Amino acid sequence: MVWSADPVRGCHCQRGTFTSAREAAAHLRSPAHLAKQYAVSPRPLTKVLAAVEEAWRVAAAPTAEARARADRAVREFKGSESLWAAGLHPEHVLEFAALAPGIDEPLPEAFFLGVAYSGVDVTWLAAAVASRPDPAGAAWLAWVPADKGDAYLSALQDWYSLGLSRRQIEALAIEGVTITAAEALAKATGRPLRTGGADLAAWALSGCRPTVEHFQALDRHGLGSTYSPSRAAMDRLVEVAQRYPLSPSRTELGVLLSLEGTQRGVEVQLELGIRSAAELIGTRRRTWHDS
User: Fold this and answer.
1) Smallest Cα–Cα separation from 131: which of 119, 144, 145, 141?
2) Residues 103 and 74 occupy one common structural domain
């Protein structure tokens, strides 16, 4: 997983990413970053931060026993030490670990940092993790802020519990596709629920939301679970279709592309006045009947 920080003008984080949550967190609390963020001189800031860190270390330094208990909850080497540097006492580490029910192995540092600083709803987090206990998944969910809204969080949890990948889940959530769409698709076509979710996700990745009727048409042509257009292909096709009156929706264009196979094939149909997959299929049926 690649991590990034909210970019600060003039700081090197504006140009790059980090290989771990530990590295990103260390940068965000570094004097160099903070000086750029708050437009202050780095030298006096460094002195102030050093004094604060020393006072905190003396006043509240955790015991070796507390560190050892926390280390057993964190996946990375010397995890409690890294998290202490980020402001998390070992007791907090153990409290946060309890928010991942069903996981009986150490959690990534990213999980604890997310719980502490992302604004995640911890009640939602615990319920989501419990539905599919997985350390990597828990670390991702810990960075989903509550201000995403109830509808987004509910959809994300439903898709997560179904076993879809992060990429699939994010695409579905962004497109506003809920699990009820997968349930309707499964009921109408006999797909397993997870397969229905994966098929919807494949189309959501290209910015499309096919209906049950679209999938039924695609299934009849052997395309229901085997084809979905790329986002780049759809972007090009939408641009081309805008030259025609009453241009079809992005989703309708995607289904037409699936049936025709090429962008040029869709253009030919648009020139003939076809504006939906149903019209295309109806035209083909009439042609076959007439022949």
Assistant:
1) 141
2) yes
User: Is residue 218 situated within a structural domain?
Assistant: no
Question: pLDDT tens across 83-134, in order?
Answer: 998 889 999 999 999 999 999 999 999 999 999 999 999 999 999 999 999 9
175 and 241 in a common domain = no
Strand runs (DSSP E) across 183-245, as ranges? none
- Boundaries of domain holding 6: 1-60
pTM: 0.82
Spatial contact of 196 and 182, defined as CB atoms under 8 Å apart? yes
> Identity (one letter) of the amino acid at 90?
P
- Is residue 120 a part of any domain in this protein? yes
Judged on CB neighbours under 10 Å (0-12, 13-18, 19+), 52 is: exposed
Radius of gyration (Cα) for the chain, nearest Å?
26
